[in-house]
Each structure stands twice: as structure tokens, then as C-alpha cells.
Design a protein that fits this description.
Helix content: 25-40%
Protein name: Enoyl reductase (ER) domain-containing protein
Mean pLDDT: 81
Radius of gyration: 26 Å
Structural class: alpha/beta
Keywords: NADP, Oxidoreductase
InterPro entries: ADH-like_N, ER, GroES-like_sf, NAD(P)-bd_dom_sf, NadR/Ttd14_AAA_dom, P-loop_NTPase
Number of domains: 3
GO molecular function: NADPH binding; oxidoreductase activity, acting on NAD(P)H
Strand content: 15-25%
């Protein structure tokens, strides 16, 4: 007698999958495999999906689809599953495409077209991982959303659920899966699923989506870029050839004249950020900010034109890679026209750190006259935070070594705090300068937990890199992730205008040819660089 098939119960969040598979399993004796909550990248406590940042969300989906979910699909025997592998991929795709609470005017085509800066990650998962995992199931039971959401289900909009449900069915249909839809109240659904289990459906495997090889690229459609083919020291960086991108709908193609080098690039090169590009074949191209000239605009772009000088934020965690290339295609909302007062190449030092400082101040939301501490104020990020805070009417404290005191005073720091030999000593120096504690703190230097000692009770702190902090004294803790900045276009335009007017300073440590990328990494890694190291193309 043939064993029952492996059956996955699928549907949008709140459709009642979990209760149904438990009830059906109890009625038929079929074991159930229920997905567990996603966890944060460090493997800590469960974190609600709607609170995850874009990088966290993608990293979680990559790991769970390639580890736990594939193992579930390979289990011998028969079982009922809640299809968590499919739901996590769908949830990430929809959320990254249209946001957690999309409006009613968001078309489904926006979901199918891709998920913002991470569309390449999710497309790769859909083609190379998701469908391989789906092949472990014999039948899919679809539960339409027929009942209102209730506690303890996270607050997801009805439109979001409708988009998720449609993408579920669309994905299964394109994969060639057999889908059985059960409707009605819970008893009716249970009866239908029980009957399907007892009928022992024959295995009908989904077919993988085809992934055709890319067409040959003519010589005039290739470009040079910085490439990371293996992780390691600066010497692993090399100039490589890559296909030249083109401007998709809503994008602009920029001929890059300059791209800044950031600590994020060092972390990508060393492998620390390797999980963010694990879905893509090397070489990986680093770089998060560029300046140059628009050479092509995609359909739908009306505010930029070929010939415009621009600076742009570039997301390196994609198949196309980051800013350190002769050409980059970016969403039009990630690029702004440069004022005449700003030199093109030096402007490459502004987007990423400027956006991060802008986001940090927005998260703190301090009123004029409030006191702000900026750790590492002489650095690129810290310097922009000092200048933006000063422009917003905040009283600014920043720490520095003796050699950087004059620099911080020029940037506008009201009080220069002596940097201690340890994070604890630096935090104590801030507390001595502001005995009641500061209202807010931007931890650009990554002091970590000791930075909390400088903040008053009920104050706020912004982390500029992920690390754990204890809850203490009612201090609100925020995480700045530049990819999550809600309005990059407006922020970049403001930064450009402030730089043109002199309120924000473009500090360039050196302009280096792209072939000297390894030297730039070594200099930044050594420390003490004041201003931006910028590669020219």
C-alpha cells in the first residue's frame, strides 16, 4: 500500500494554515512539519518579520531556504507542512517590492517585476533554490484568505495579503505544481484536506523554472569594475570585466567617474558581509556611492536626462554589484543632479555616509536646542552627522584625539570631548561634559554598550552597525541602515544643496585610480584617514 504523499498547505498569512495542518494531522495520523519563526542574523531570539530591515530579511530568507527548508523537503516518508519555504520567499518578495502596508494603488505587476534593490537575490532564490525545494512535495493545498486577521497574527494589510496570495498561486503555476484549493469554514476545509490525504495523491513534481544562459556580450557592452573573486586581504581586489548594464524601467545608467571606498567595502572584501552576496556568482563589486554622468534613462524616468551630472547611492548586494565600476544602473530615486558648485568626483564622497547621518538624525528626531553626542566625529560619517546636527540647531558634542580637535571645531562641534583609551573612558568623558546625559547619541565609532552611559534616562541612541544592546533606563535604541532610508531622493537633494551652500563639507583624502583599489583598502584599514578615499574611473 503506497504511503500518503507529502502535502504542503499554502496560503497568505492569516489564512489558517497552522490550525488546519494540526487538525488534519490529528485526524489522519499524518505527522506535521510546522515552520519556526525567522530569527535574526546572529541566531538570537525570534524577530517579527515586519521589524526586519531589508538586509536582515534577505539574509534570513537565504539561510532558511538553503538550510532548514531544504532539509524538510528531503525528509523521508509522509508529512503535512505549512509550506514555510514558499511563504518566506513570497513574504520577502512582496514586502521588499511594495512595503509592509502598501496602498490600494500598488499593482500586482510591481510585485512580479521585482523587489527593489534585492530583486536579484529573490529571483535567484526563486529559480535556483525555491523550486528545488518545492520538488520535495507531491501536492499543494491552497487556503484562500476568507476570514479577517486576528491576534496574534502580525498587522498585515488586506492588500498585502491579497498580493502575497496571488504571488503564491502564480509561482506554483509557473513551477507546474498541482494545487488543490479548499474553501469554506474550518470544518469544511478540514474535511476536504482529510479526503485528499486519504486519497493518497500521486506525486506530481513541480518543474524548475528555466534559467537560460545570458547571451554573449559584445565588446562594446562590457566594462571594467573592481572585483572580489575570493575573500581576504586587500590584495584580492582586481580589475575585472563585467557586462555593462542598461537602464531598466525607473532606472538611470550612470557613467561612473568616481566611487568612494567605505568600511562596508572592507567588510565585503573580508567575507564578513559574504552572506549578503551568497546568492550571486563572483566576482562581487563593492561600493555604495558614485558620481558621474547620466548616459541613459529607462522608461518612466522624467526628472533626469542624459548629460546630467549626478551623485548616486548604489546597493552592492545585488547580482550587478556596487558602485566601483565604469557604469552602474540605479533607481532614479537613488540619484540626484549635482549643483554647479559641486565638483563631480569629490561628490562621490557624500551619498552613503551623508544618507546614514541624515537617517540617524531623523530616527532621533531631536528638537532644536537638544544635546547630541556623535562618537567618532572626525570620521566621514561622524563629520557629516556633526554638520547636519549643527544645521538643525542641535548642541553637538563629539569626541576626538588631540590632532583632530581643530577639525571638529571647524565642522561645528560645540564641545570636543577627549577620546579615551577605551569605549568606557570615552563614554565617561561625554558624561563629564554633559553630567545629565545627552538627549541623543549617534554611535558612528561603534563604542557599543558603553555609549549608553553617555545618554540621559529616556534619551535615544542610534547604532550605525548592528550590535546587541541591553534595555536600560528607558533609552530608545534605533538601527540606521542606509538601504532602509525611506526617501533617498529627497535626502540626497538636501545633502547636495547643503554641500553647495557650505553647510556640509566634501572632505576628500585622496583621489586614486581604480587600479589602486587595494591600496585604498589598505589605507582605510590602517585607520586615521580623514576625509574620503575616492577611486576614479
Amino acid at each position: 500500500m503506497r504511503a500518503p504523499a507529502k502535502i504542503a498547505v499554502v496560503g497568505a498569512y492569516g489564512a489558517g494554515k497552522t490550525s488546519l495542518i494540526h487538525a488534519a494531522g490529528a485526524a489522519t495520523g499524518l505527522p506535521s512539519a510546522h515552520g519556526t519563526p525567522m530569527r535574526d542574523p546572529a541566531g538570537g531570539a525570534a524577530k517579527p518579520l515586519e521589524e526586519a530591515t531589508e538586509p536582515e530579511l534577505v539574509q534570513l530568507v537565504v539561510r532558511r531556504l538553503t538550510e532548514r527548508v531544504l532539509a524538510e523537503a528531503a525528509l523521508p516518508g509522509a508529512f503535512l507542512s505549512d509550506g514555510s519555504l514558499l511563504h518566506e520567499w513570497v513574504y520577502a518578495t512582496v514586502r521588499l517590492a511594495v512595503g509592509l502596508h502598501p496602498g490600494p494603488d500598488v499593482p500586482y505587476e510591481a510585485v512580479r517585476a521585482g523587489a527593489g534593490p534585492y530583486r536579484e537575490v529573490l529571483d535567484h532564490l526563486g529559480r535556483e533554490v525555491l523550486h528545488r525545494a518545492l520538488s520535495g512535495y507531491d501536492a499543494f493545498v491552497h487556503l484562500p484568505v476568507e476570514f479577517p486577521l486576528g491576534d496574534p497574527v502580525p498587522p498585515i494589510s488586506e492588500h498585502f495579503r491579497a498580493l502575497s496570495d496571488r504571488l503564491l498561486l502564480d509561482t506554483l503555476e509557473r513551477a507546474g505544481a498541482t494545487v488543490h484549493t479548499v474553501t469554506g469554514p474550518p470544518p469544511q476545509r478540514l474535511a476536504a484536506l482529510t479526503a485528499l490525504i486519504e486519497a493518497r495523491p500521486r506525486a506530481v513534481r513541480p518543474r524548475p523554472l528555466p534559467s537560460p544562459p545570458p547571451p554573449p556580450t559584445p565588446e562594446d557592452h562590457r566594462m571594467h569594475a573592481i572585483g572580489i573573486s575570493q575573500y581576504g586581504a586587500p590584495e584580492v581586489l582586481a580589475l575585472v570585466e563585467r557586462p555593462r548594464p542598461s537602464a531598466a524601467p525607473g532606472e538611470v545608467l550612470v557613467r561612473v567617474l568616481a566611487a568612494a571606498v567605505n568600511p562596508t567595502d572592507l567588510m565585503l572584501r573580508s567575507g564578513e558581509l559574504g552572506p549578503y552576496v551568497a546568492a550571486f556568482a563572483p566576482p562581487h563589486t563593492p561600493g555604495m556611492d558614485a558620481s558621474g554622468e547620466v548616459v541613459e534613462v529607462g522608461p518612466g524616468v522624467t526628472d533626469l536626462a542624459p548629460g546630467d551630472r549626478v551623485m548616486a547611492f548604489v546597493n552592492p548586494f545585488t547580482a550587478a554589484g556596487g558602485a566601483q565600476a565604469e557604469y552602474v544602473a540605479v533607481p532614479a530615486g537613488h540619484a540626484v543632479r549635482l549643483p554647479d558648485e559641486l565638483p563631480t568626483r569629490e561628490a562621490a564622497g557624500l551619498p552613503m555616509n551623508g544618507l546614514t547621518a541624515h537617517q540617524a538624525l531623523a530616527l532621533l528626531d531631536l528638537a532644536p536646542g537638544a544635546t547630541l553626542a556623535v562618537t567618532g566625529g572626525a570620521g566621514a560619517l561622524g563629520g557629516y552627522a556633526v554638520e547636519l546636527a549643527r544645521h538643525r540647531g542641535l548642541r553637538v558634542l563629539a569626541d576626538a584625539a588631540d590632532a583632530d580637535r581643530a577639525l571638529l571645531e571647524r565642522l561645528g562641534a560645540d564641545v570636543v570631548v577627549p577620546r579615551g583609551a577605551t569605549p568606557e573612558a570615552t563614554a565617561a568623558a561625554y558624561r563629564a561634559a554633559a553630567p545629565d546625559g545627552v538627549d541623543g547619541l549617534v554611535d558612528a565609532a561603534v563604542l557599543g554598550a558603553p555609549a549608553l552611559d553617555a545618554v540621559r534616562d529616556g534619551g535615544a541612541l542610534v547604532k550605525c552597525r548592528p550590535y546587541e544592546l541591553p534595555e536600560t533606563r528607558g533609552i530608545r535604541v534605533h538601527q540606521a541602515f542606509v538601504v532602509d532610508h525611506p526617501d533617498k531622493r529627497a535626502a540626497l537633494a538636501e545633502l547636495a544643496a547643503l554641500a553647495a551652500g557650505g553647510a556640509v563639507t566634501l572632505r576628500t583624502a585622496a583621489l586614486l585610480p581604480a587600479a589602486e583599489a587595494a591600496r585604498a583598502h589598505a589605507l582605510l584599514e590602517r585607520g586615521g584617514v580623514r576625509g574620503r578615499l575616492i577611486l576614479t574611473f
